[in-house]
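Record type: monomer structure entry
Structure origin: computed from sequence
Chain ID: A
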Amino acid sequence: SYFDKNFKVEVKYFEGKVDFVKIVTVKGKINTNVSGSVESMICNDRTCMPPTKATFNIALN
């Protein structure tokens, strides 16, 4: 990560392949769904591609 002085925020970045994992606990014996979205952008040292957004919906049984 690095501090972006233009936006005044800490920027996290990953190189190569990355997996994100989130543990979800469901209370009781119910069927439910977990849904959300992930937004990402690919950059090199010269330019960035426009951001993309991926949505997901996972059934928990």
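Annotation 1: The chain has a mean pLDDT of 90.
Annotation 2: The first strand starts at residue 2 and ends at 4.
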